[in-house]
Amino acid sequence: MTKIKHFSCFPALRPRRLRSASWIRDLVQEHSFSVTDLIWPLFIIDGRDVREDVPSMPGVERLSIDLATEAVKEARGLGIPAVALFPITPQAKKTEDGREACNSENLICRAVFAIKRAVPDIGIITDVALDPYTSHGHDGLLKDGVILNDETVEILCRQALVQAEAGADIIAPSDMMDGRVGAIRDALERGGCKDTLILSYAAKYASAFYGPFRDAVQSKGCLSGDKKTYQMNPANSDEALREVALDLSEGADMVMVKPGLPYLDIVRRVKESFGVPTFAYHVSGEYAMLRAAGAQGWLDYESCLMETLMSFKRAGADGILSYGALDAARVLAGK
Ligand code: PBG
Question: Pairing relation of β-strands 146-148 and 170-173?
């Protein structure tokens, strides 16, 4: 009887066989992403027919509500399921206490209302935090150099409610105050918005990658100090799980890790530990890096964007917020 040899190494095993042609590569591909994984963040500015470039984010514009509505229509046409809206508050409306956040006629509420009416089948996500509205640029109330937690949470509840009443489908608290998810959930329940979803920025790090976003919303010039007393220390990972556990127990439907690429390990741990809808934010600085290198001819922007978005899926993210979402959707649609 011939003895069957069992090989456990080269040349019996040649991993390149599985890569030898495109059909076999496709057949054994482990992960994929599609347009339905993408959330497109948009910056909204006051006025009509206003379109402004954001210099540190090439390809990104601040759009007035009418133009944003058209852009959202295009996004929906390409299959993007949701957009995240961020307002640019005129300097004159910024105050110490950020009270404009709770004005039911403010820019974000008007934008949500108009976009929802024009494009009813796209999900609208709004950010809950005070930084677009405070004269000091912080996400919460500032007193004697300290960010007040509980007093801020009270305002955030009112802010969340005006956004939900304007038609926001998903409320996304990005402020990192303690206890805010539970308080917002309660406020929504009592305010008759029991079906409004909460996507909590559960693991949000104090990151330098938010720089271009602060240019876009014009909060950089105002920011006094940093956000390290509420956003997480980039050196921590177990703490992210604790934050996620708390937000889920307080009633978050979905959680987010932010920034994205430098924190893919956190995305993986969160997804594996909790098995809940987990989103990652490919933030402004990450987008700017791709664009800047692309503009120099050092990288191919589109290919690197697609590879980046795939990496989020590989890490376990269910969805990705990216300023490149529309570009990616066009690539996926072959346009
Ligand atoms: C505001 C907020 C920030 C981002 C989203 N919501 C900035 C910050 O916390 O300073 C950053 C998004 C990005 O960089 O793309 N709370």
Answer: unpaired
